Amino acid sequence: MARYFDVHPANPQHRSLSQVVEILNDRGVIAYPTDSAFALGCTMGHKEGLERIRRIRGLGEKHQFTLVCSEFAQLGEYVQMDNDVFRAIKAVTPGPYTFILKATRETPRAMLMPKKRTVGVRVPDHVTALALLDELGSPMVSSSLILPGEDDPLIDGWTVKEELDHQVDAVLDSGDCGLGPTTVIDFSEGDVEILRRGAGDTAPFE
After folding, report:
1. Is the pTM of this model over 0.85?
2. Residue 33 predicted with pLDDT over 90
3. Which of 21, 138, 185, 198 gets the highest tally of CB atoms within 10 A of its CB?
4. pLDDT at 45
5. Long-range CB contacts (< 8 A, 24+ apart) of 79-85?
6. Taking Cα atoms as reference points, which of 184, 203, 199, 93 lies closest to residue 143?
7. DSSP secondary structure, 188-204, as one string
8. Cα–Cα distance, 184 to 25 (Å, whole number)
């Protein structure tokens, strides 16, 4: 059964966060709140964790995973950005956006899009998610928690616990997640392509 951690939305308890990080570092898979609904997460380089997330969501091998970072400055270690892309992304970060970019050599190969060698990156505008990342001390591999056959991600912690009780190791809940998926912007081919219109305003990219 998944452990359930209910934390304060403005000041999440450090003890609970540290326990969730222990689960992550022990090769666990968690569900956690963001500014764009709940997401699934595991540590970088954890191939088994990626496979578990694929099974939960019913995803194929070509699914584009996302590196969730605690601050904009971390992105440059994992993705390639020219000056124009750098400025465009910084202007809306943190926020409910996922950006697809060419990966650097620092990005774990297991999470790259085959052949294209791209990866998604984002910085959530969410207190609990950022506090968890700070406690972890590194980015987390993530995917929106959209169950097979559904169009919308899960937004309620207790529903997540009931649905995935035997499929994830922990559910972190602060009762204040966003209501829709991220907006996905692809910069990997040079031009701007909006792949999904979600919680983030697409006007800056049109």
Report:
1. yes
2. yes
3. 185
4. 83
5. 79/103, 79/104, 79/107, 79/119, 79/121, 80/104, 81/187, 85/187
6. 184
7. TTSS-EEEE--SS--GG
8. 28
